[in-house]
Amino acid sequence: MLTLGGNNMYVEEDLIFYDQPLRDQDQIFDFMADELERKKYVTSGFREAIKEREQKFPTGLKLDGMNIAIVHTEAEYAKTEKLVIIKLKNPATFHNIETLEPIDVSLVFGLILSDSEKHLEVLKKLGTLLQNQKIIKDIKNVKSQSELFTIMKHYFN
């Protein structure tokens, strides 16, 4: 199991969204910002910062079996350490982190990290997790928000 030290609960059930009918990056980022602002987990600058960062530094990743995006902003916009996970009803277009080509993404991870030291640690854990074919298959096959939460909680809390 991958745990991230300390008593931080990265994965919260109400920050896991399953089968979301969001059509594009703007809708995804607005949805994420709305949820995070409501909980006071991010500053008011988060919404614009995440959109701008994605334009400059695309986050789409082609994985064997599923494409994902791992979006984040600078630590100054975060007030806590959380993971937002959005499994989209239909894929949305992101740009590949390596080739910059458009790819269809089905799963979006939002990293909310106020401690910039943890950024690499969390990305490394996420990378390890996403190289595991069984985990990808499990995530791909979830049928509900609670199933997705159970998988993510197991690896991140």
Automatic annotation (TrEMBL):
<feature type="domain" description="PTS EIIA type-2">
    <location>
        <begin position="9"/>
        <end position="155"/>
    </location>
</feature>
<dbReference type="Pfam" id="PF00359">
    <property type="entry name" value="PTS_EIIA_2"/>
</dbReference>
<keyword id="KW-0762">Sugar transport</keyword>
<protein>
    <submittedName>
        <fullName>PTS sugar transporter subunit IIA</fullName>
    </submittedName>
</protein>
<keyword id="KW-0813">Transport</keyword>
<dbReference type="InterPro" id="IPR002178">
    <property type="entry name" value="PTS_EIIA_type-2_dom"/>
</dbReference>
<dbReference type="InterPro" id="IPR016152">
    <property type="entry name" value="PTrfase/Anion_transptr"/>
</dbReference>
<dbReference type="InterPro" id="IPR051541">
    <property type="entry name" value="PTS_SugarTrans_NitroReg"/>
</dbReference>
